[in-house]
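chain below, 351 aa
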Amino acid sequence: MEALLAAQVTVSAGQRTGFQLTFGVSKSSLLLNALLPAGYFGPSMRVILTVTVTGIPQVLIDGVITRQELNPSNEPGQSTLVVTGEDLTRMMDLVELNGVPFPAMPRETRVAMLLAKYAVFGIVPLIMPSLIPDVENPEDIIRGQQGTDFEYIKQLADEVGYVFYLDPGPVPGTSVAYWGPEIKVGIPQSALTTNMDAASNVESINFSYEGFSKTQFVLNVQVPATPPVTIPIPLPDIGPLNPPLGAKPLPFFRVQTLETADDTAIEAACKGLAKASQSADVVSASGQLDVLRYGKVLNARALVGVRGAGLTYDGLYFVKSVTHNIKHGEYKQSFSLTRNALVSFTPVVLP
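prediction:
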């Protein structure tokens, strides 16, 4: 721990969680002469990083090392050992098992069976049922696995517009494997405050609005007839789990027809709703905060309030990504926020 110079953990919606640890080494250090040759920093070695802020412990990363770099220097005290890794989904992405059959099983059952193999890593599944059940007759077709366990679980999630990720904790050595819709509802975290003198708790924050990126997606549904008749159906960009996060909805400037010829009607509808939800998040913010001033750790994949930026950009946002940067005596976070509307619909954002 005395040799640890810096730790960085990046958590982002839709991607694996990654980490990087930087150690200071010397010719006589224990890390260089004993731990490194013994394989303590080799691939697949497990790393659990926990931080405690205001007496509350939180697991930032539970993963494995994938890469190591030794950087010797002629300058005294400048040699470093850098280890890079990813969360435990890396262990699900090692062996291809093409063709393993799953007869008459809905997607959530297949996901549960695949995740059961990784209970030894402390992985606990949290699986949301598909919005529309879709069980195929085994006399007609038997679905088989394609690729590694991780690739297949991601494929099953994409087919119904769901997401899959590992959330470390709440106890060190355990992780929650979430398979379900991207949830953009719930109790918001403590507000990010800017331009309010002593009450400000962010070092910087910037906002942007990409107006022309919002797209109206359309599904062409074929009606059985002679000749066949196709009806275009526009997809909504909001729903129960993706509500508007502002009072002023934003207009569409683009229209795109989805290619869903190889999908069933259920798969096409779920995929389209997920793409429409992602396209709607045209308002974004990015910045940096000091955790000690903020008072707690800002978590990704959850809501947070913003205040002090003015009527247009105040309000609730979805935290898309967070990067933890930890050094001796310093803990800062870089963050990225998104939402699908302008102007706060709440008169007050609680601190």
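The chain has a mean pLDDT of 90. The helical segments are 30-35, 107-116, 149-159, 265-280, 291-294.
thats it, cya
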